[in-house]
Amino acid sequence: MNLSSITKKLQNRSPSILGQDELQKSAILLPLIQVDNETHILFEVRSMKMRRQPGDICFPGGKIDKADKTPKHAAIRETTEELGIDESAIGDVIPLDYIVHDAGRMIYPFIGTLKNVEKITPSEAEVEEIFTVPLDYFLRTKPDIHKVDIKIEPDKDFPFDLIVGGKNYNWHARQIDEIFYKYDGKVIWGLTAKILRHFLSLLDKDNNDIK
Description:
Elements: H1 3-10, E1 24-35, E2 38-46, E3 57-58, E4 61-63, H2 71-83, E5 90-95, E6 99-101, E7 105-114, E8 127-134, H3 135-140, E9 144-150, E10 174-183, E11 186-189, H4 190-201
Parallel strand pairs: 1-7
Antiparallel strand pairs: 1-2, 1-4, 2-3, 2-8, 5-7, 6-7, 9-10, 10-11
């Protein structure tokens, strides 16, 4: 294959994320509601019956199905299923930055407004309880941040003889920030806290209209 045929073949392609077809894709909705003329964020506590992360605090969301037209549709569908509401109760769905996670997941977060919240009937199979936190609390409160070391441990049959340095190879280790928000006995951490912090970073903290 010559140079001109290579450039001709590739010149009009649009770049994407390498390996994204192998990633498990999920969509999440950060729900905003009005409580006594004040903006609140709604959270779920995962059911203790759940196989993964029982009792953790999260936003509505889940795996993107083949039937979902877009990640946005998946976020809306998951929210209706978990909160027992109609799609018409969800409005102003706006994308946040998506996340490529070390655990082989790609997450598409959105914000959205909920109305008729008095009609919310959480799924007993997935949701232990729901609660809300005033947005203003998060705007005024700095989270606790703790470091987590990410270490590389090759398999026992790793071919050290094929790399320079062998078993003494200087693997690049790194740290990540684990974020914790605490409110009224509840602890919000993990991906939920990271998405929340990203959302808060997009807001103008001096703008009283968001309260």
